[in-house]
Amino acid sequence: MHDLLREMGREVVRAECPKRPEKRSRLWCQEDVIDVLTEESGTEEIEGLALNLQRTDKKSFSTKVFTNMRRLKLLQLNYVQLTGNYGNLSKKLRWLCFRGFSSKFIGKEFLDQRNLVSIDLRYSNLIKFWEHSRLLEKLKILNLSHSHDLTQSPDFSKLPNIEYLILKDCESLSEIHQSIGHLKRLALLNLKNCKKLNGLPRSFYKLKSIETLVLFGCSRFENLGEDIGKMISLTTLLVNGTAMSQVPSSVGRLQNLNYPSLQGLIRVKLRFPEVPKNYFPALPQGFNSLIFLNLAGSSSGLSLPKLSGLSNLESLHFSNMANLPASRDLPTSLKELEVDHCTALDIIPNVSNMSRHILQVPLSLSLSPLSLLSSLSHICIFYTCLSRYGIGTDCKWRWWHFCP
């Protein structure tokens, strides 16, 4: 929301009762909120209340201060200490944000909120989510990120309609409950930097609704299930920083994966070239929608899958791949080819099908006959090979311009 529009809205709310904040429908000014909570002067008029404190602040209130706020729908309490029975909270709560939640688990009275749509308990002290599960049929968003002591996920059987599950940086989390396979509407699972997690339940891979799976930084995560190829809605799959040494062949059936996802999967293959050549899915079958492909950062040998079937590929980059063999099956759609620090390449492949676009080559390459290059509008030759063509080395690289 634009700042000016937000300020206009706040001024409208202030005008509801300028001198008595407890009579307003929304409270966000820290001074007003602390006054209302301290004096226990809350009223039915309050529908939204937000108090954002710092970790170092030491503010504590009894849950009794919410007794009269029977219409409260939005509650945000960041680093606020509450004492007493959480049953005093409004039964109409829909959005609850309680960062820095201090309890080790959630009591059953806390979750007697059947209308909750979103729970945000980032930076909590939770060890486990709850002792006694309670049906929260309307809950769609659960965010427990940065809860460093959380060791296991909730039992999801009482949370049937979760759509967004965010467990980022739960560094003690070692287990995802198998009931996650019952979340038929789950669209996003973010497990970034869950460093003790080594896998997901088999039931998870049966979900058809998943669009985003983030495993970035899960340093002990070893394997994706073979059934991942059945997750037809998956568009984002981030696996950088995992312990994965292989990619399931069924990944090739995921037609909608975006570029960062494909890039990460390909890098797994580059890091572990000893994996059999046919283990990584044939690119034309799985990745024919690729427009940009960057194969970089491997010093080991690599047998590339066939590239000619990538009918939409426009930009192809090879860099720092010491043993890359010459590829002679470039797709006809290619507009830009960059080959940098691939020291085993002696001959650039035939690029006669590339029209009016860019080729970059490094020291070790012997250029194809210039007749094959006459259609290119730009060639970039790195300074270490300029002398081979009788060109001065007073700059790092030069562009050659062709004007067919």
At the first level of CATH, the class of the largest domain is: Alpha Beta
Count of helical regions: 5
The CATH superfamily label of the largest domain reads Ribonuclease Inhibitor
Q: Strand percentage, roughly?
A: 15-25%
How many individual domains? 2
Q: Could you state the oligomeric state of the chains shown? A: single chain
Main beta sheet: strand number and arrangement?
10 strands, parallel
Write the layout of secondary structure elements.
Elements: H1 3-14, E1 26-27, H2 30-39, E2 48-52, E3 60-62, E4 74-78, E5 81-83, E6 95-97, E7 118-120, E8 141-143, E9 164-166, E10 188-190, E11 212-214, E12 236-238, H3 259-271, H4 283-286, E13 292-296, E14 315-319, E15 336-340, E16 358-361, H5 370-373, E17 378-382, E18 397-401
Parallel strand pairs: 1-2, 2-4, 3-5, 4-6, 6-7, 7-8, 8-9, 9-10, 10-11, 11-12, 13-14, 14-15, 15-16, 16-17
Antiparallel strand pairs: 17-18
Question: Your description of this structure?
Answer:
The protein has helices at 3-14, 30-39, 259-271, 283-286, 370-373; strands spanning 26-27, 48-52, 60-62, 74-78, 81-83, 95-97, 118-120, 141-143, 164-166, 188-190, 212-214, 236-238, 292-296, 315-319, 336-340, 358-361, 378-382, 397-401. It is α/β, with parallel strands linked by helices. It has two domains: 94-281, Ribonuclease Inhibitor (Leucine-rich repeat, LRR (right-handed beta-alpha superhelix), Alpha-Beta Horseshoe); 290-404. It has a ten-stranded parallel sheet with strand order 1-2-4-6-7-8-9-10-11-12. The model is unreliable at 273-286, 298-302 and 362-404 (pLDDT under 50). This is Putative leucine-rich repeat domain, L domain-containing protein.
